[in-house]
Amino acid sequence: MIIYKTGNMFDSDANYFVNPVNTVGTSGKGLALEVKRRYSQTERIYQAVCKSGEFDIGDILQVPTDDHKFVLFFPTKKHWRDPSEYEYIERGLDSLKYHCKDIPKNSIVAIPQLGCGLGGLEWSKVHRLILQYLGNMNNITFYVYGPNEEDK
Asked: How many CA atoms lie within 13 A of 146 on its CB side?
């Protein structure tokens, strides 16, 4: 089930937070920087996996937080300087769909505007991809964070 939200996803009752990142382990701006500041222990694991070369487009890295939640690192670009690509979003959403089959039923997964901020993608296209890949999953609730009113 998809529920649309605005505001800060970390203020919600979600227990999984999708974090759009790159595959080189740099979290210098945007939501990735906020996750780094909130959950620094998850950042160290993300960086180590990137350094090992075992984190690529289409992978989902689940890392627990100290407050019994999880960050789902979702690469939307290879290098932080690169733009995001719709193909990367599709590959990641396909992986996320299968990943969600292994998390407890009735979990809540918060999803931001993947690749739409610093990545430069159009929200309307990304939104359609989210609906295509996750729209018929009924055992998980997805909080999809679209543009705030002031961003429209």
From this structure: 15
Q: List the CATH number of the domain containing 77.
A: 3.40.220.10
- Write out pLDDT tens, residues 97-120: 999 999 999 999 999 999 998 889
State the pairing for strand pair 108-111/70-77: unpaired
69 in active site: no
What is d(CA 18, CA 114) in angstroms, rounded to the nearest whole number?
A: 9
Of 29, 36, 51, 77, the catalytic one is 77
Whole-prediction pTM: 0.93
Parent domain of 50: 2-151
If one counts the domains in the chain, the total is: 1
In angstroms, the CA 97 to CA 74 distance is 12
Q: How far is CA 109 from CA 35, 82, 91, 145, 147, in A?
A: 15, 26, 18, 11, 17
Convert the pLDDT of each residue in 13-24 to its tens digit.
999 999 999 999
